[in-house]
Amino acid sequence: MECVRRWECCSKVRWFAATFASFAALVLCVLAGTAPRAEPESERPLRVAVYDAMPYGGQRSDGLFVGASVDLWRRVAEDRHWRYQLTLVSQMENLLSGLQGGAYDVGVGAITITPERLARVEFSYPAHRSGVTAVFAKQTGAAAALHEYAAALGQLGPLIVTMVIFLTVTGMLMWWLERSYLRTSGNSDSQSVTSWHEGIYWAVVTMTTVGYGDKAPKTPLGRGLAMVWMVGSLVMVSLLTTTLVADITAGRVQSVVPLRASDLVGKRLAAVSGSSGAEYLDAQRLAYRKFGNLPDALDALATGKTDAVINNIGDLQYLVSTRFSDRIAPPRGLLAPAYVAFALPLNSALRKPLDRALALVTAGPEWQSVEETYFGR
Q1: How far apart are CA 246 and CA 32, in angstroms?
Q2: CB atoms < 10 A from the CB of 361, how many?
Q3: How many Cβ atoms sit within 10 Å of the Cβ of residue 210?
Q4: Whole-angstrom distance, CA of residue 320 vs CA of residue 317
Q5: Domains (ranges, CATH) in the chain?
Q6: What does 168-236 look like in DSSP terms, one character per residue?
Q7: Mean pLDDT lowest for which of 128-132, 140-144, 204-208, 363-367?
Q8: What are the tens digits of pLDDT across the range 329-349?
Q9: 20 to 30 A from 32, CA-CA: which of 18, 22, 54, 176?
Q10: Mapping DSSP to helix (H, G, I), strand (E, B) and coil, where does residue 258 land?
Q11: Is 179 exposed, middle or buried (0-12, 13-18, 19+ CB in 10 A)?
Q12: What DSSP letter does each residue of 48-97 carry, written as one string?
């Protein structure tokens, strides 16, 4: 009887232990299934799209990927022990749609954080400081001076037209007043104003203070008109001269002062389709010509087909300094500050570990010195 009781007791213990073990295993499976995965899957490398825009990202002729964002990604991936595979993407729209469709896990390069892109993808901790700016063609030499002078004269059109009207009216009026002298004297004096075109000639000579003396008024009314015209023409000429000098000086000062949105009004603008520059111009409701890539847009600017190109400042600085330094002036400020970051699909599990790694890598002095080799101080 004692043996039976012992056997029943042992059976109950074994049943309880098996039941507890099954329950614990079930709980662990549930927790493992519901817990978020902080790290990417280990069975395949991350698919990283590199936007082709130096100095942030690009590919050399030997196949090696280079650029500031590429170097930063390599450091981040090394910190997180991630395996990855890089793919060059030439169009921003292809990169964004690839992230949305699951073709890529991460996008790196000159990807500026904008409201339009935030509706389609997520962004990491900022990787680089950036912003939207514009570049203009260089104006040097005699041709540049003539262009500057002509542009200033074009702005003074109303004043010049007014001066021409006053000059014509004064010349005609002088001829009308001097006719009485010809009728009363009965002789034709070579110094008298005998026709309307001689009156205009006299008005021009008087305005320019040349003073040939070959034509002069003879009547009291004519001399009175001459005195008024002398003073009035001095005022108009001085007004024209000072305004012209002020406009030319303002144009030269404007080339070194910070850029403003008003500087773009009335100019033939260009931007790359889908770029941060294009989104800025759309927000400002400014018309512009669209290009497939930045080098083509800068070529159009250098050949006079456009007046300004609007884009990310890092891209513009790099291309202007390496390919267009003799024809295009470097950027002189920002139209709008911005940040460049890595792009991710919405609700990506990479977001948190990527942000932690970026914060650690970019805070170090070693990365700051590397970044200076691409963008300078």
Answers
A1: 75
A2: 20
A3: 9
A4: 5
A5: 46-127+341-375 (3.40.190.10), 136-142+260-337 (3.40.190.10), 144-254 (1.10.287.70)
A6: HHHHHHHHHHHHHHHHHH-S--TTS--SHHHHHHHHHHHHTT----SS---SHHHHHHHHHHHHHHHHH
A7: 140-144
A8: 888 788 888 899 999 999 999
A9: 18
A10: coil
A11: middle
A12: EEEE-BTTTBEE-TTS-EESHHHHHHHHHHHHHT--EEEEEE--HHHHHH
State which amino acid sits at residue 271: A
- CA-nearest of 226, 230, 310 to 267 is 310
**Average pLDDT, whole number, for the chain?**
81
Determine how many CB atoms are found less than 10 A away from the CB of residue 74: 15
Burial of 337 (0-12, 13-18, 19+ CB in 10 A): exposed
- Alpha-carbon separation of residue 146 from 8, 137, 140, 241, 327 (angstroms): 112, 15, 10, 16, 17
What's the sign of the alpha-carbon dihedral 343, 348, 350, 353? positive
Cβ-contact 343, 47 below 8 angstroms: no
Residue where the block lists tokens 């008003």? 262
> What CA–CA distance (Å, rounded) separates 333 from 262?
13
